[in-house]
Amino acid sequence: MARLHRLMPNTEFARAFVVQRIIGEGAMGTVYLATRKGDGREVAVKVLKPSIADDDRATARFGREAIVAERIGNPHVVDVLDAGFDEDTGLHWLSMEYLDGEPLPSFLERGPTQEVRHRLLRHLFDAIAAAHRAGVLHRDLKPENVVVTTDDAGQPLLKVLDFGVAKMFAPQMAASATDGGLGTPLWTAPEQGRGGQNMRPSVDVWALGLLTFFILTGKIYWRHANNEHSSMLDLAQEMLQAPIADPSTRSHELDVEGWSSTLDPFFMQCVNRTPADRFEDADHARAALFPLLGFPAPTPASSAGSSMPAGESPPAEMSSSPMAAPSFPAAQSSTPSAALSDPAHASSRAAQPQGGQPTLAPPPPAAATRWVPVAVALAVAVLAALGIGAWWWL
Fold it and tell me: Annotated catalytic sites, by residue?
C-alpha cells in the first residue's frame, strides 16, 4: 500500500477527522490540527512518518504514547484521545487534546511572577509523581516537552507532553534497557547514556531537579550551556565529570535571581550522579520540595508499592503494534475531556532540605539561551567520543 507523506487541508482522514493544517513536525511524525467529525471538537492528530512506519521499535514507541497517557490519567499530562491505523492512507495515528498554549521556554521569557513559577512546579511534579505511581518513566523531560496554557479560571496550567519515550517499569524486577535510555543530553541522567543500565524513576528525578532551576531562574543550570565561548568538550565534561556546583553559586555566576539557598539540598539530591542517592521517585522529591515553596507536603507513596494495581505486573516491553493495546472509544464517539496542547511540540514531544518557605526574589524576565541546540548537538558528538554510550537527540 502506498503511504501518503502529507495530509492536505480540508480532507477527511481515518474516516474520523477533517484536516485543517500542519501545526508541528518532528523526527517521528507530523502533527495536524483537525476537526473531529463526531462532535466538531478541534484535536491534534499525530501521524507517524511513513519512512519509519515499518520500524517495529518506532511503531511501538508511537503507540506507547497512547497507552501510558491513558494509564497515568493526570490533568497535567496531555490527553491522548484515540489511536488507530488508517488503511486508506497506510498511516498510524493518534489524536490528542489540542492545547492553545506555548512552550515553557517562551512562557518564561515573559517573566512570570514567583507565584506563577511555583504553580508550574507544582503541576510538573504532580504530573511526574502520577506517572511514577502508574509505573511509567518519562525519560525525556525537558522544557520543550512542557506546555503552559490556561485553565477555565484563566490561571496558568502546565501540561507534560511526549510520553512516546516513556517506559513501563516493574518495581519488583530489573527494567529493560533495550532502548539505550533515550532522552536529550542536557536534561537526562548520566546512566541514560550507558547501555545495559536499569532505568528507575530516579532518571526523571534528575531532570526534575534541572527543570526546577530552569523554571525559577529562566536559565539552564549548566554553566557552559550559557556561554557561547565554551567548547563542546567543556559542556560534556561539566555534565558528566566535573563537580556539580550548588545552584546558589550557579545562579550568582549566571547573574539571575529567583533561587533561594534553602533549595540547594533539594537540588543537589536530585542531580546526584549516583542514582541510589537521589530521591527514590517524583513522589519523594515532591514531598521535599513542596514545603519549601509554601505548599502542603504530600505524603510520598513509594513507586514500588503504588505503581501497579494488585496482582498486575507491567510488561518489560510494550507491544510492537501501537494499535494492539489502546482501549479508547472510537474517535467519532469519544467524549471530550479537558480541552487544551501546544501540539507544535507534541511531535518533537539523602540530605533533605530543612526550614520553611524560602524567600525568593522576584525573578526578572529571562530569555532562554538561544544557541544551546547547537551546543547540544556538538556535545552529543563528544559524548560518543568519550565512550559514554548512545545518547539520542529527540
Answer: 140
Q: Which residue has the cell 493495546?
A: 325
**Cα–Cα distance between 22 and 30 in angstroms, integer?**
7
Give the closest residue to 180 by CA, choosing from 140, 152, 218, 132: 140
Identity of the residue numbered 322: P
d(CA 101, CA 234): 35
pLDDT for the residue 367: 43
Specify the higher pLDDT residue, 202 or 194. 202
**Residue 131 identity:** A
Query: Are residues 63 and 302 in contact, defined by beta-carbon separation less than 8 angstroms?
Result: no
Query: Using an 8 Å Cβ cutoff, are 23 and 111 in contact?
Result: no
Domain regions of the chain by residue span: 102-314+347-385
Share of the chain above pLDDT 90, in %: 49
Residues 132 and 136: their CA atoms lie apart, in Å, by: 5
Is 228 in a helix, a strand, or coil?
Answer: coil
Please report the pLDDT score of residue 222 as a whole number.
95
Of 27-41, 162-176, 333-347, the poorest mean pLDDT is in 333-347
- Return the sign of the alpha-carbon dihedral for residues 317, 308, 391, 242: negative
HSE, side-chain direction, 13 A CA sphere, residue 240 = 22
C-alpha cell read off for 210: 534541572
The dihedral formed by the CA atoms of 281, 282, 285 and 289, expressed in degrees to the nearest 10: 180
User: CA angle, 36 as apex, 87 and 93 as ends, to 5°?
Assistant: 35
Pairing status of strand 156-160 against strand 167-168:
unpaired
What is the reported pLDDT for 59? 82
Please give the pLDDT value at position 1: 52
Compute CA 143 distance to the chain's CA centroid, rounded to the nearest angstrom: 8
Q: For residues 324 and 307, give the distance between their C-alpha atoms in angstroms, rounded to a whole number.
A: 22
Q: How far, in whole angstroms, is CA 49 from its chain's centroid? A: 21
CB 106 within 8 A of CB 259: no
Rg, C-alpha atoms of the chain: 20
2-6, 173-177, 318-322 — which one is most confidently predicted on average? Answer: 2-6
DSSP 379: H
Domain 102-314+347-385 classification at class level: mainly alpha
Which neighbouring-strand residues pair with 45? 32, 95
Instruction: Report the 10 Å Cβ neighbour count for 381.
Output: 12
More confident residue, 309 or 76: 76
